[in-house]
Amino acid sequence: xxxxxxxxxxxxxxxxxxxxxxxxxxxxxxxxxxxxxxxxxxxxxxxxxxxxxxxxxxxxxxxxxxxxxxxxxxxxxxxxxxxxxxxxxxxxxxxxxxxxxxxxxxxxxxxxxxxxxxxxxxxxxxxxxxxxxxxxxxxxxxxxxxxxxxxxxxxxxxxxxxxxxxxxxxxxxxxxxxxxxxxxxxxxxxxxxxxxxxxxxxxxxxxxxxxxxxxxxxxxxxxxxxxxxxxxxxxxxxxxxxxxxxxxxxxxxxxxxxxxxxxxxxxxxxxxxxxxxxxxxxxxxxxxxxxxxxxxxxxxxxxxxxxxxxxxxxxxxxxxxxxxxxxxxxxxx
Length: 333
Hints:
Radius of gyration: 24 Å
Low-confidence stretches: none
CATH architecture of the largest domain: 3-Layer(aba) Sandwich
Shape: elongated
Number of strands: 12
Strand content: 15-25%
Distance between the termini: 78 Å
Number of domains: 3
Mean pLDDT: 87
Largest sheet: 6 strands, parallel
Number of helices: 12
CATH superfamily of the largest domain: Response regulator
């Protein structure tokens, strides 16, 4: 089976078939439909390697996330992939496990596969490798980190606004002893959220107690350990804001293990608003950062750079908002 048979079935030239398959030139929509109908009828599967040689493009996009086991990221991946498939791109997906060295390995693999662009949805960064990618002209989209420049765009999450909403909420309920469990502080996003918490407390003229600010790992285990340490303090906090939902779920487990109740004894707020937190007991108040919106925004930003619509990159904003559920209440008197 070759494109000559497709051309005969569709009653077009082989050049038209090639342009349709490789999307390398203008083809009328009616003609393209005839070609794709013939391809479907003849059960023809284009040779992706040959297409790459002809078009100079791999039709392959790289997507790097921090932790594929965190429920936030599968939703992001699904959103990104749906749009990629719609535009006839395949996806090369990898997870860094929050390790900069692993991100370096992932990026090098993608260079070897000659990806048409990479979306880096992590806070881990190898500056030298990013410069190499930029020098090669590989379109890049970052989340949290990275600079806007030629073929480089940035998806900016309003972490600060989301954390401040969480602080405003618990303080409005009457809490003054408010604790914070951060992510690993070698991550830019974790430092941003921690700083927003401290500034939010000061905005209410509440001096943050250093003992109440604990470093976690953006995992349930890290949240459980940090919460256990907070519970050993006297007096203990009456409200806790966690840097992500997975941390908050671990904190919820530690509070329950100590024989205490949420929100009767301690109010608890997460961040990300993953679907799971609607089903915890109690349902978790959380700052919503739509993973689907992040994934779609990242793809559209990358596609714009690849398609040549613009050479210079841009910053794309993703908003956050607090979703109040059952895990926060006025402090117990």
